[in-house]
Amino acid sequence: MRVQVQEENFDPSAELEHFGRGKDTGAVVSFTGIVRNNSEGTLRRMEIEHYPEMTKTALHQIADQAQTRWALNDVLVIHRYGRLTPGARIMMVATASRHRVDAFQAAEFLMDYLKSRAPFWKKEITDQGADWVAARDEDEDALNRW
Amino acid sequence: MRVQVQEENFDPSAELEHFGRGKDTGAVVSFTGIVRNNSEGTLRRMEIEHYPEMTKTALHQIADQAQTRWALNDVLVIHRYGRLTPGARIMMVATASRHRVDAFQAAEFLMDYLKSRAPFWKKEITDQGADWVAARDEDEDALNRW
Amino acid sequence: MDVLYFAWVRERIGLPREKVETDAGTVSELVEELRAREERYAAAFADLSALRVALDQELADFDAPLANVREVAFFPPMTGG
Amino acid sequence: MDVLYFAWVRERIGLPREKVETDAGTVSELVEELRAREERYAAAFADLSALRVALDQELADFDAPLANVREVAFFPPMTGG
Description:
The complex is a heterotetramer, with 2 copies of chain A (146 residues) and 2 copies of chain C (81 residues).
Chain A: E1 2-6, H1 12-17, E2 27-34, E3 43-50, H2 52-69, E4 72-80, E5 82-84, E6 89-97, H3 100-117, E7 120-126, E8 129-132, H4 137-142
Parallel strand pairs in A: 1-4
Antiparallel strand pairs in A: 2-6, 3-5, 3-7, 4-6, 7-8
Helix pairs in contact in A: 2-3
Chain C: E1 2-5, H1 7-13, E2 17-19, H2 27-35, H3 39-44, E3 52-55, E4 58-60, E5 71-75
Parallel strand pairs in C: 1-5
Antiparallel strand pairs in C: 1-2, 3-4, 3-5
């Protein structure tokens, strides 16, 4: 299991190169989150603030929970903070397991919890001004399925 | 959308490098399937047979269905045939969308359909002999959720 | 009509494809004709619930008509992915 | 006790963290004390349903006791991922 919180960019390809390899891994699932421009194309940048003293602990707790609930051979969580321009990678998770169902479910679980339980806050700076991204009810609701 | 059926290996990292990039993509999900050894470690190789005249059409139909059901910016399906040793990659799918739910669901849908509706058959050659892998009821049942 | 066999169906029958002259109206009737040929066909088609069929590269049912079909393929349930 | 503010809570109050001397028994009591200080605190804590709290880096409820807590953090619902 590896959890990284960093300002700099990361390379999902390089991260996946040897991820979860071993005779027991049959399935590897990865998710990469990318800064999406708005429909008007006016997003200049996104600023991600976090709570450093809490972030790593929270991410480890979420990853531990995933490993308790599913049979995983490996888990990777990377989350960035700071200034990101449209098209930049924000974060990724990867899961490795014997069968596909565990890897898929664990990856979705990790994403749902990262969205609403990891101490990150996004601010969008557009041509019109700056706004904190509001939490969405559907993201909170997504936790109920687990 | 890209569908590839091939004997040679592929590089998931290279495939994902520019996959689905564009101002509208916020989520990229990938699945990679790997030849897993059995618990005794006696698997020498896996042989994947397919029905060439049907395979590409079937994979395109499955990918088209995914694009009809979810809002996807891109879909990739790669499936190998021929002789594979333990640890070798068998196949991958990748999906790109605005929001994570579409990418996850479409990737799971693609996997469920590839398992039971794409004309591939796996034979395992172990120290003890050769056996065709039997289709699992749970794989057939998995189709019912879509 | 071209008839194709895959996986253990191919192994039991001993060939990957053959030309078949038939007046069978449905897949089931074709299966009956093949079964009657030789023991290896009877063995391959012993349990239809363990088999799948494709007509011109599209999955079909055993009661599907064969009119205008050029290629019939028999195989066990698929195990891709 | 260290009190930390994040995102728009930080912006409204105008600082990221401060030392607070308090006898508040619960988070809610601490919020009442802060609200009474100045308008910017009252504005930040106007709607508790829009806020979350962590005690020593663990999410908690507003009625949680503050005994032995060294660090309290207030912030809006998280938007990671």
